[in-house]
Amino acid sequence: MSYPAGILTTMDTDAFWALIADARSRVPDPADAEAVATEAGALLATRPPEEIVAAQQVFWGLMGDSYRNPLWAAAYLINGGCSDDGFDYFRGWLVAQGREVFERAVRDPDSLADVPAVIAAAPDGDEMEGEDVLGIAWNAHIKATGEQLPPGASTVRYPDLDADWDFDFDDEVEMTRRLPRLAALYVD
Q1: What digits encode the pLDDT tens for the residues 47-79?
Q2: What InterPro entries would the database entry show (predicted)?
Q3: Which pLDDT belongs to residue 8?
Q4: Residues 112, 17: Cα–Cα separation, whole Å
Q5: Which residues contact 138 (CB under 8 A, 6 or more apart)?
């Protein structure tokens, strides 16, 4: 399935965040990324296919915007390590937490120390991951059309990582200096 050029602008960032907020308002625990992803996918599946495809691009734009080593360092602290895939899943979880939490964390990753789910997870080392969030548009498109997203439905541009944050994330002294509030929760 292909869509004419220009038609993929039916969902913008504000509409995407409204979809996430709506999904969060409909689940018993809005901190549950899997539940938010399922609900967002169901809501999105009721929209025209072009809008579903546009949602995929908006999502991957957010993934590109959040590809920052300070946030990766925070994910590393919170999850007790963080691979490339793990960072994607962490950022999926972050999207499921809603716009305010997402945007604040991208600006100041140490602000995640204020998120109730992060605070609650710290004593047991529970991971913050939302792999299902990565498939919201994919699953919605299949549900709505019976077909996979069209090839090239989205692209992502990852910026160069900040060289000032190119250090060993296992260095507790450096992590504590750079992310003091999160380190207070996660560094022994």
Answers
A1: 999 999 999 999 999 999 999 999 999 999 999
A2: DUF4240 (IPR025334)
A3: 40
A4: 19
A5: 56, 148, 149
